[in-house]
TrEMBL record:
Residues 8-201 form the Enolpyruvate transferase domain. GO terms for molecular function: transferase activity, transferring alkyl or aryl (other than methyl) groups. It comes from the Bacteria. The lineage of its organism: Bacteria, Pseudomonadati, Pseudomonadota, Alphaproteobacteria, Rickettsiales. SUPFAM superfamilies: EPT/RTPC-like. Pfam families: EPSP_synthase (PF00275). This is EPSP synthase family protein. Gene3D superfamilies: Enolpyruvate transferase domain. It comes from Anaplasma phagocytophilum str. ApMUC09. The keyword Heme does not apply. The keyword Transferase applies. InterPro entries: Enolpyruvate_Tfrase_dom, Enolpyruvate_Tfrase_sf, RNA3'P_cycl/enolpyr_Trfase_a/b. Keywords: Membrane, Transferase, Transmembrane, Transmembrane helix.
Length: 228
């Protein structure tokens, strides 16, 4: 605290003594949701993720996946952290409205990937409200999905992805560019494909960490991952 009894004098009052304390910093929710999406579409998978900070965006993303039929269970670990249990699910196409898109746009590529494995058509509304940079990300993703033989229809305000519940049978070459922002949605598609998929470019630390965790999934029937 600083006091100024007169213009020529400043008094600074000392603060309370600061003590060391353990502070838990949750991991990025982006990495958590990559794993959730992977488990939902990888047949036979079941994982538990602990130490998850459930902010508004993450909760909105999970709510959409649950509406699609995702077998996702949330349980409280502490005042702010949650445990997520997720397993392979028979996903269904749904309608996702404009206000939801605005909340979860950074995760929209993941929702699109999950939609590929959903029975029926997943419809996205309100795309006209996306800025130009976000439209570029979406368009780049749809071009890549086309290489997997995925049918999509897009207008200025509306997107449809025609899902297929079975495993992808097409292989292809995907060249990841800057506008894709993340290679992980393509890694998920590649892992789920019966044929070889070659992914070129942007294999960053985030992608390497994801692949390391996926290797554990391949080795065990059930995996518990602590993200704190």
């Amino acid at each position: 605290m600083v006091t100024r009894p007169n213009i020529d004098e400043i008094t600074i009052m000392g603060q309370k003594e600061i003590y060391a304390k353990t502070v838990v910093i949750p991991a990025s929710s982006v990495g958590v949701l990559h794993l959730v999406a992977m488990a939902l579409v990888l047949r036979g998978s079941a994982i538990t993720i602990t130490g998850v900070l459930l902010d508004k965006t993450t909760k909105s993303f999970l709510d959409i996946l649950i509406r699609m039929g995702g077998r996702i269970r949330l349980s409280v670990q502490s005042s702010h952290l949650y445990k997520i249990d997720v397993e392979f699910s028979n996903m269904l196409g749904i309608e996702i409205q404009s206000q939801e898109i605005q909340l979860i746009f950074s995760y929209l590529p993941l929702i699109c990937v999950v939609s590929v494995f959903a029975a029926g058509v997943t419809k996205f509304f309100g795309l006209s409200k996306l800025c130009e940079s976000k439209r570029k990300i979406l368009n780049a993703l749809l071009i890549a999905l086309d290489k997997f033989g995925i049918i999509s229809k897009v207008t200025a305000d509306h997107l449809e992805i025609h899902g297929r519940r079975d495993t992808l049978s097409e292989g292809c070459i995907i060249e990841v560019r800057e506008e894709h922002k993340s290679v992980i949605p393509f890694l998920i598609l590649g892992i789920a494909s019966r044929e070889e998929v070659f992914i070129k470019g942007m294999i960053d630390e985030e992608a390497r960490n994801f692949l390391e965790i996926i290797s554990k999934l391949a080795a065990k029937d059930n995996v518990c991952i602590d993200v704190v």
